[in-house]
Amino acid sequence: MPHIFVSQLREGMEVQQYFVVRQAEERLTQHGKPYLNLQLADRTGIIRAKLWSEALREYPGPFRNGDYVGVVGFVRAYQGEPEITIQKIWTLAQIKQKKELVNEEPKDFDISLLHATTPYDREQLWQDLLALATEALTPPLRDLVLNLLHANEAAWQTHPAARRNHHAYVGGLLEHTWCVARLAQQIAAVYPDIHQELVVAGAILHDVGKIKELGQPHAPDYTVAGQLLGHIVLGWEMIRQEAANLTFPDEKLLLQLEHIVLTHHGQQEFGSPVLPKTREALLVYYADDLDAKLKIMEQHLQADTSEREFTPYHRLLQRELYKIGRETEPPEEEEKFLEE
To answer: CB under 8 Å to 86, separation ≥6 — which residues?
Structure first.
């Protein structure tokens, strides 16, 4: 049967296809029976799934974050959202072993269906970001920013910007950085007494810690350092270390740059240790928040293919979104079949 994208799964549908595991947790029911709570994904989104105790005994896994799995089951509605009840599940390795495949994938496995990637040309985004740092900054900020960009080039081009909520796909960090930097630069140009170089440098580096916070770009999960410290602290540490390597000559300027990174979540309850106390920091916070929110709205609109005027309620945005006048075309389906 054809692959049905996550964005198109609805209550009552049967599924027999591949997903990538984004999260797998063993839990207990109210009666003490073990079951597996999973998040499964393809290139259009993430869906929750349950492997109840009876099926878990037959298909115990283990299933780990980043595993490719073949799933047979059906979609039900849970708390207003679709969820897969899994009847059968195998890892790709188990399927290959069953089919006696060694150096090739099963003919029905298509990795391009499973991993979302930024719609932009990553090489072009990267060259634009380098050009922005080169042209908009002067030493010592230019040296600091370019050194961090070049030192982390490969990771910056592949990492997501988040685990789930926004730009959570290959190249998402680069796309988000590019958008926030361009947006912040244009806003700063309206206010001539704002330190524009500081704004641009802070916007480019605000999420640099995501490179160390998140692992496995195709199925992002927190690293140990990401769990214990978080990307804000990790980013501050990366900047401070590179500044020491350069013998950064302006301690006050460095402190202001670090302040932008430490405050870019805007509120202490959202992870920033202090509130923005400079206009440059406040500007970068709002540019970052705006780009993230717009991406979340875009993804929510694209995921709803119904003919209703408003989308379903979005828990993070705390609202429904108005759709009239917006054309949403589902991704083109491709054929594939999971053989037992």
So the answer is: 38, 49, 50, 51, 52, 55, 59, 71, 72, 73
Angle between helices 251-262 and 141-151 (to 10 degrees): 50
- Is the confidence at residue 304, as pLDDT, over 90? no
Residue 102 has what pLDDT? 66
Architecture category of domain 6-113 in CATH: Beta Barrel (2.40)
> Which residue's entry shows tokens 């059906």?
74
Single-letter residue type at 228: L
Segments of the chain assigned to CATH 2.40.50.140: 6-113
The residue assigned the tokens 């917006």 is 326
User: Is the pTM value of this prediction over 0.85?
Assistant: no
> Residues spanned by CATH 1.10.3210 within the chain?
122-299
DSSP reduced 3-state for 221: strand
CATH of 122-299, one of 1.10.3210, 3.40.50, 1.10.3470, 2.70.50: 1.10.3210
Quick: pLDDT tens for 64-83: 888 999 999 999 998 878 99
Round to the nearest angstrom and report the end-to-end CA distance of the chain.
13
Task: For residue 200, give the amino acid letter.
Answer: V
The neighbour count for residue 219, using CB atoms within 10 Å, is 21
Beta bridge partners of 215: 221
Yes or no: say if 283 and 187 are a contact pair by the CB < 8 Å rule.
Answer: yes
Instruction: Give the number of other CB atoms < 10 A from CB of residue 240.
Output: 15
SS3 319: strand
Q: Is the pLDDT of residue 335 over 70?
A: no
What CA–CA distance (Å, rounded) separates 176 from 69?
Answer: 29
Q: Interior CA angle at 91 toward 90 and 97, to 5°?
A: 90
DSSP conformation letters of 12-64: T-EEEEEEEEEEEEEEE-TTS-EEEEEEEEETTEEEEEEE-HHHHHH------
Percent of the chain with pLDDT over 70: 95
